[in-house]
Amino acid sequence: MATSTVSETVLAEEVEKRRNFAIISHPDAGKTTLTEKLLLYGGAIHEAGAVKARRAQRHATSDWMEMEQQRGISITSTVLQFDYRDVRINLLDTPGHQDFSEDTYRTLAAADNAVMLEDAAKGLEPQTRKLFEVCRMRSLPIFTFFNKMDRPAREPLELLDEIEQELGLATYAVNWPIGMGEQFRGVFDRRKRQFHLFERTAHGSKAAGKTVLDLGDPRIEDLVDQDLYYQFKEELEMIEELGAELDLAAIHAGQLSPVFFGSAMTNFGVQLFLDAFLDYALKPAPRNSTQGEIEPTAEDFSGFVFKLQANMDPKHRDRVAFIRVCSGKFEKDMVVNHARSGKNVRLSHPQKLFAQGRESLEEAYPGDVIGLNNPGVFAIGDTIYQGQKLEYEGIPCFSPELFAYLKNPNPSKFKQFHKGVTELREEGAVQIMFSADESKRDPILAAVGQLQFEVVQFRLQNEYNVETRLEPLPYSVARWVEGGWEALDKAGRLFNTTTVKDSWGRPVLLFRNEWNVGQVEGDHPGLKLRKTAPVV
Ligand code: GDP
User: Fold this and answer.
1) Whose CA is nearest to atom 16 of ligand 1?
2) Is residue 266 domain-shared with residue 303, that is, in the same domain?
């Protein structure tokens, strides 16, 4: 029966020592900087340089496409793997702002934990809120890191309050700052009850200090300005008396967020964060499937595709499928079942997905991500497995915010146009909708980021030889109707919205803004609207 060569104990050990997370943040909060510092702790110093290089690359969309062409592999999504304290950490990189697309959301489907990175001067920002909603859908444990404490920031208590009030997420401050900006003196680590002091060097360049003092050490009063120290003590007393208790189960259920303050640029507070993260984060967890929950330590290998990345070079039209390993052991060249087609697939040419190019991979365990070059076989959400047949829960369609008719001005290219649009939709590059009015036959592209439109047009031109035109539509919100057409008919006439069909023929309402959604919901209490499509 058993096809895997891994012993139960080895598998359990490998799962035990894995942690996997994605960073959710708004552009400029410091994700690249934090990623770089985290990698340094893993000893992957050369990788850190790669992170910086990527930052320079992502500035213009056209650069991105050029890069894709030259490298022939994804640079918009990578998985950075590093070891720290004997733990293998997989950091699933979500693309930056110009690259914002459904891929960013889908990556969260493969993550076990999320780190919400905020600029302490700004607090919650739009992109972070959106990504948070996806984490919430999956009940992911969320760690919060307030960055840039070396710069003027908002009051820490106010920042925590914002998370509690606006996201409905309880917080537990693992460390607490002393001052901020010019007055930033460091943090108090509640785990070890120690001060970690932040020092600036004489020449104004900033570096993380190494002074650590125990609580009660009288030297603290010499090193920290009295007013600041008293303010700190008052705040600490307050959070210790009134704040939530540290509750691992609540963290794992995504209801309580451990909070950290620091400065990624000066590498201050990063190690404190990483140490606590390893202790509190969720290990690769069981996943829901058609066979019930599958334990990561189940002997048979299984995994699912959460993202496809097309090779932009028309000469090599292969696709890299990103697969999250969910159970058992992955081995190079193993033959697995492909649940959707029922076919056998050999998993050859697996790749480790580092920022720097391709590296061949021999084995992988639950929590890891592998890249496979399998042209045409895989679609988003596909399950592969050995042993008993199973399928993991699909990845939902996320609520698009940008809509445009895609026009093909050249009727003789109809066939290529249709083929291209169908294939790009199947691959998950963009969502396609159609007007409910049969006389309007142009497909409507529905995306979460502008980049998706550009990629679709670029690829239709390059791979299918069709030049297209976009005609933007004035909507910014989509809602799926629970109960489908029947429920919609029952609701009667709706105002301030347009009805379209998604790729499965289900009704979707498009609105100009959230306010209009509220109006329709108010006028039709029986109508239930959903932000994401039901999983198919
Ligand atoms: P990303 O867009 O989230 O990847 O943000 P980056 O890592 O590129 O950082 C955006 C800007 O903020 C850069 O100029 C960084 O040098 C700066 N930055 C990042 N972390 C800190 C910090 O802790 N303190 C200060 N003062 N600047 C920071």
Assistant:
1) 265
2) no
148 is in an annotated binding site: yes
206 C-alpha vs ligand 1 centroid, how far in Å? 14
Residues 276 and 294 in one domain: no
* CATH label of the domain that carries residue 60: 3.40.50.300
Is 35 close to ligand 1, i.e. is its CB under 6 Å away? no
Please tell me the pTM assigned to this model: 0.87
**pLDDT at site 352:** 57
Rounded CA-CA distance 400/392 in Å is 24
Tokens for 378, please give them. 């895989």
Are 430 and 294 in the same domain? no
Rounded to whole angstroms, the Cα distance separating 470 from 474 reads 13
Query: How many domains does the chain divide into?
Result: 3
pLDDT score, position 63: 42
Tokens of 174: 């693992």
Kindly give the parts of the chain with pLDDT less than 50. 1-2, 45-50, 56-65, 67-77, 202-207, 354-358
Dig out the tokens for 428 from the structure.
């998950």
Q: Ligand 1 pocket, 121 CB below 6 A?
A: no
The secondary structure of residue 344, as a DSSP letter, is E
ipTM: 0.99
The candidate with the shortest Cα–Cα distance to 456, out of 441, 437, 443, 439, is 443
